[in-house]
Amino acid sequence: MGLMANIFVAAFYGVMLLSLVYFIHKVMWFMRFRQLQAQLASNALATARSTGDWRQDAITTVLYLEVVRLPKNTAPAAAHLMEILP
Question: How do residues 18-28 score in pLDDT, each as one tens digit?
């Protein structure tokens, strides 16, 4: 019976170690993803500023994103906003 308990304890610690390694891997991946996201956002901002009317494009983008997030019962209002957006 002692051998079975030792095997169970070793398996338990092995699983705990693997889950810790997996968690650290996910945290490192998330940090890399955030860094990549920041680089993409700064590149997009630089590109938008280098073009002509970036403020109007930004306002249109924000309005579009707000329309996409509207609940389903506001579909007529969303359709009207989509018509007036360029």
Answer: 999 999 999 99
